[in-house]
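Fold this complex.
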Amino acid sequence: MQLSKIITFLFIVSFLCWVYNFEMVDKMAELNWEDEFYFQWHITERCNWSCKHCYQTGNGGDDLPLPKLMEVLDKMEDAVNKWGKRATVSLTGGEPFLRKEDLYALMSRIDKSDSFLYYDILSNGSMISEKEAWGLAAHQKLRRVQVSLEGASAQTNDEIRGSGTFDSVLTAIQNLRAQNIDVSVMMSITRKNKDEVPALVKVLGKMDVQTLTLERFIPEGHGIYMKDVVLDSNEVRDLYTEIYKTAVNGSPVRILLYRPLFALVACDDPTVGALCSAGNNALSIMPDGTVYPCRRLPIPIGNVLTDGLYKIWYGSDVLWTLRNPENLKGKCRGCDLLHQCRGCRAIAYFLTGDYMGEDPQCWK
Amino acid sequence: MLEIDSKTELKLSDSIILKAFPEVDQYYAFDIENGDHFNLNATAHWILEKVKVNGHFGSLVENFADTFELEKKEALKDVSEMLEFALKNKIIIRRRNNEEKKNV
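Structure:
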């Protein structure tokens, strides 16, 4: 069998590893391969900040009322139980604390569900007071809260996220850490802030932050006109090389390296690089129930309430296209690192117009 | 034992999606209502694809025997076995008009 066929085979099998095996008449036991299925759930599009680079378009639809949100949870539970997995979910927005009562209701419900392994909250941090952090600490399945910073200084951060936001986020981090809640910080890397990564690592280390996630900025939503700050492939190569050195040489904060393209830096390191989860083991749900393969790849593939997760997961042509590496184009197609990296489909989509196009920031 | 005879009319359940990846010999049936999913072999997938187009059991057996160059008796056994499994698991159902005739 050719290498490409083997990879295609493994990919399809990895996706469908929990199928019932049917050889004419035998229905065999379920096979579990991966244990988790990830949902990124945007419970509102509303936000009290207006970050210049945000992927929001303002078209996320109306918020679902709480009973409908509970229906969505039912569907998540049903699906992961059927697949022999456990759900992990990021509750986010917009700013999820703008629906504080509903957010807490969802958290309480998830806390009690055996179908969920844990959940994170992705917030801008502006509403996480001491009291709020105290309230969050009571929730047993809350793994961590993620906030975002766009630099190591107020000047760099606030230029993107708005005046006063740097201090606001640092206060939120302090409040969360005071309650011993794990904190993750995310930074969207652009040409304007890439040089501040080392300084940010130091700041976060001093604040006892647990993890730092570095995502490549994708020009979409509000940020669609910021293509001039998107890194070119050589800039990404140099930055990722430096980040890797920092990560493995005593960084005071754990830098998450399981992202596409990191595999190019250290392909032998099992903690580095990751396949895109779109179409594989994740879905994003928008405030009105619309489902995307990934929040950064905003192609509607159905609605969780009207279509249900099974119809979307099994029936979406977009997902089937994403699943098959034979559909990749350019340098991604046939790459010898396909088992570790397939590039970012979202950045391919927004920079080339084709979500199966080559990752334009790959330097290989 | 499910009863199937040469006049039985079958159809794919409305909630079933068939998927084929012949280059890697992977074939599936998915139920988009309840999430059931079945790993098929190529022959089972071939039969279900035919049911989707024309679910007349007698024609299906003849087509199967011709395509796979089998004796009719052997084809009948294989197709029956497959379809009984598919009926049992609601991958296929009897056509309503056929059921109505039987009830009359």
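Residues 17-33 of chain A have pLDDT under 50 and may be disordered.
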